[in-house]
Amino acid sequence: MTTTPATAVPVPAPPSRRRDLRDAPFLVAANGGRPERLPVWFMRQAGRSLPEYRELRADTAMLQACDTPSMIAEITMQPVRRHGVDAAILFSDIVVPLHAAGMGVEIVRGTGPVVEKPVRTMADVERMPQLLPTALRPVAEAIGMLLDELGETPLIGFAGAPFTLASYLVEGGPSRNHERTKAMMRAQPEVWHRLMSALADITITFLRVQVDAGVDAIQLFDSWAGALSEADYRRYALPYSARVLGAFEDAGIPRIHFGVGTGELLGAMAEAGADVVGVDWRVPLDEAGRRVERAVGGPRALQGNLDPAVLFADRDSIEAEVRRIAAEGRAAGGGHVFNLGHGVLPSTDPDVLSWLVELVHELPG
Ligand code: CP3
């Protein structure tokens, strides 16, 4: 460790410490290639399915943990050590940038993000604070620690897409039907577009801090985009996700774009600017590949798409699903990163996840 003397002169950001991992199986596949073995990681791998995570988090609130570099780094490492996955995902949350900007948001166990003052009027949007990169120093610091610890394993940074963040802000918390959000789009379009624009800026800042600190890929989680028709997605959400993804077009790292229930949106989500399209379990990867290719005129890498609930079945059934998905991923032809179709369910047996990694690693990329 070097120490920097205190100085009154503004210090420019240090050059990115991104490692050269271009041969890492995850990055080969994400860039559209065929690595020797099929790479695998799990959305929500860094969390409640692990006893070591629950122990570490026992006395620390979620957002407090996300603000503490040593905890971020340790929780990010836990699934890498235990399962031998091909990529780490930064331990954080999609609401961390809102919290860092000073918006009143908490993560309530068993519920999810809850917003103190929902955003519903133009005055509410105008009151939204800006996010300063300095408010995310713990995130940048944790990434620095992780680059030292991870060795050859790539690190994925992430953010929530503007639509998914807007849903939490407008509804005030998790929502099944997104009714206030959808009402705002139509009834107050100028408020909606101002809100989405502000959220795109916040999202770009959150990702910029991670990219500058050296992450090897980014994933934009638009978890709830599947609630929209394609026409509404294109009109009310896509332009803002495209602005976010476009900001990192020249960053030299793959951009993964993921949503749940987005079978009808796969083409539009690829058009928004994805190098890798995340697919849930509802659409087979070969069909997903066709939808993406029709939209953007060429293949894109795909990520997915084992139903997380299948991990509660017997091992023969799981293996049959894994082999089917690997074959469909190969048939899609644009690079395949094996993953679940959505996050690891908290009650998943961690030993099943470790076994699954070994099984996937026996398959060609
Ligand atoms: O993938 C990883 O393991 C990295 C960490 C990560 C978390 N949240 C940690 C977390 C990531 C990538 C997220 C993204 C996230 N957060 C999304 C998009 C992904 C998805 O699942 O669709 C969304 C929608 C959120 C919002 C959110 N935060 C929800 C719905 C919840 C669960 C609430 C609950 O308790 O049921 C959270 C909390 C959260 N984020 C936890 C973790 C490990 C659980 C906190 C705890 O341990 O109490």
Distance between the termini: 39 Å
- Let me know the largest β-sheet: 7 strands, parallel
Query: What ligand species are in this complex?
Result: coproporphyrinogen III
Q: Provide the CATH topology.
A: TIM Barrel
Instruction: Determine the structural class based on helices, strands and strand pairing.
Output: alpha/beta
> How many beta-strand elements?
9
Please give the count of helices.
Answer: 15
CATH architecture classification: Alpha-Beta Barrel
Instruction: State the oligomer.
Output: single chain
Helix content: 40-55%
Keywords: Cytoplasm, Decarboxylase, Lyase, Porphyrin biosynthesis
Subcellular location: Cytoplasm
EC number: 4.1.1.37
Family: Belongs to the uroporphyrinogen decarboxylase family.
